[in-house]
């Protein structure tokens, strides 16, 4: 059976009122996002926002020497391009596809027009932005204070929360770039998790075998982020 695509697989779009959704729906363009594809470049003016459905996008802080570190992940719960409706137009971070899949693209001006109407969409986007800021802040704390093993568990669980399956396609090199660490460190940490029976890793495919086991090993940062997302984005789809 062919996969059915629906913009309302994105939680923000699903939470809109019927009238608001119908205003945006004709302008939503489905996009297939490829692994490693860049959606937003540092300092570049943005013209579109993206509502992921079954894909994950990483927001990365990039240094002058080209090194980068992930500061947040965005999946079906959110939107890529908050600087457009927040008034900044550009951002110093990059947005790179971490897990391939689909998203719905919308012209930034259309989103801003709806946002400026003080609509349901405005309240949803502001709450989402607060949750995203929490994730960014907690990621910075985690990278400074917790072990690589704990960081990897956090990253796996946050990714798992944003996917419809328990599998990720991601090389250790890409994970290292996301976490801002050496590849050898990721190899060692992933090996520990595999030997413990928590994950299975083979040729860039990661399967989560024991989620409770990962949750038992992760630092408190994952729970802080998840609690804030649940608190701020626990809306129901209008009938």
Automatic annotation (TrEMBL):
<dbReference type="InterPro" id="IPR014710">
    <property type="entry name" value="RmlC-like_jellyroll"/>
</dbReference>
<dbReference type="InterPro" id="IPR000595">
    <property type="entry name" value="cNMP-bd_dom"/>
</dbReference>
<dbReference type="Pfam" id="PF13545">
    <property type="entry name" value="HTH_Crp_2"/>
</dbReference>
<keyword id="KW-0238">DNA-binding</keyword>
<feature type="domain" description="HTH crp-type">
    <location>
        <begin position="146"/>
        <end position="212"/>
    </location>
</feature>
<dbReference type="InterPro" id="IPR050397">
    <property type="entry name" value="Env_Response_Regulators"/>
</dbReference>
<dbReference type="InterPro" id="IPR018490">
    <property type="entry name" value="cNMP-bd_dom_sf"/>
</dbReference>
<feature type="domain" description="Cyclic nucleotide-binding">
    <location>
        <begin position="12"/>
        <end position="99"/>
    </location>
</feature>
<dbReference type="Pfam" id="PF00027">
    <property type="entry name" value="cNMP_binding"/>
</dbReference>
<keyword id="KW-0805">Transcription regulation</keyword>
<dbReference type="InterPro" id="IPR036388">
    <property type="entry name" value="WH-like_DNA-bd_sf"/>
</dbReference>
<dbReference type="InterPro" id="IPR012318">
    <property type="entry name" value="HTH_CRP"/>
</dbReference>
<protein>
    <submittedName>
        <fullName>Crp/Fnr family transcriptional regulator</fullName>
    </submittedName>
</protein>
<dbReference type="InterPro" id="IPR036390">
    <property type="entry name" value="WH_DNA-bd_sf"/>
</dbReference>
<keyword id="KW-0804">Transcription</keyword>
């Amino acid at each position: 059976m062919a996969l059915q695509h629906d913009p309302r697989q994105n939680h923000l779009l699903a939470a809109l009122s019927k009238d608001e959704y119908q205003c945006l729906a004709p302008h939503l363009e489905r996009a297939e996002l490829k692994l490693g594809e860049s959606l937003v470049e540092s300092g570049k003016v943005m013209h579109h926002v993206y509502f992921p459905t079954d894909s994950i996008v990483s927001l990365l802080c990039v240094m002058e020497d080209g090194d980068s570190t992930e500061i947040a992940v965005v999946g079906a719960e959110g939107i890529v391009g908050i600087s457009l409706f927040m008034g900044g137009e550009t951002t110093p971070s990059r947005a790179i596809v971490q897990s391939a899949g689909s998203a719905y693209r919308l012209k930034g001006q259309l989103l801003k027009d709806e946002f400026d109407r003080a609509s349901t969409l405005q309240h949803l986007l502001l709450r989402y932005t607060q949750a995203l800021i929490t994730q960014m802040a907690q990621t910075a704390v985690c990278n400074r204070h917790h072990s690589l093993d704990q960081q990897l568990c956090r990253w796996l669980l946050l990714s798992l929360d944003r996917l419809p399956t328990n599998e990720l396609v991601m090389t250790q090199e890409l994970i290292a770039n996301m976490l801002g660490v050496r590849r050898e460190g990721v190899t060692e940490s992933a090996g520990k998790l595999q030997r413990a029976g928590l994950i299975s890793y083979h040729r860039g495919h990661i399967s989560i075998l024991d989620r409770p086991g990962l949750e038992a090993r992760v630092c408190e940062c994952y729970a802080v982020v998840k609690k804030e997302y649940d608190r701020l984005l626990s809306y129901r789809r209008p009938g």
